[in-house]
Amino acid sequence: MRPITPAGIRPPFARYSHAMEVEAGSRMVFCSGQLGIAADETIPDDVEGQAELCFKAIGIILAGAGMGFADIVRINAYVTAREHMKGYMEVRDRFTADPPPASTLMIVSGFTRPEFLVEIEVVAASLPAQG
User: Fold this and answer.
1) In the chain, what percentage of residues exceed pLDDT 90?
2) pTM over the 0.85 mark
């Protein structure tokens, strides 16, 4: 994977890459959007707690494919209000590797249940094991 942040356009607003190049033949994993709900059905009241649960679920999914957070090439995240952006980004930055993946953050009107504040989906890629 190679980050692409070309000269001639404004640098990223936060810790993300404008684009990530993925080598042909890479294994790809497309992760559905994860919501901030624990296995015991509890939902934290704050965006940071929910984002932590989202990324922990993503980590488990990636591990099931033999991948990890360093393999993430793209994040799409959705929050329900502008005030949730900072908390989400702080959690995202703890879970993402260098170089940071390409990332989009959108404000949406809501999710399937009103207590959800954030939803996160990722695309990950890794080269097949050499053998």
Assistant:
1) 85
2) yes
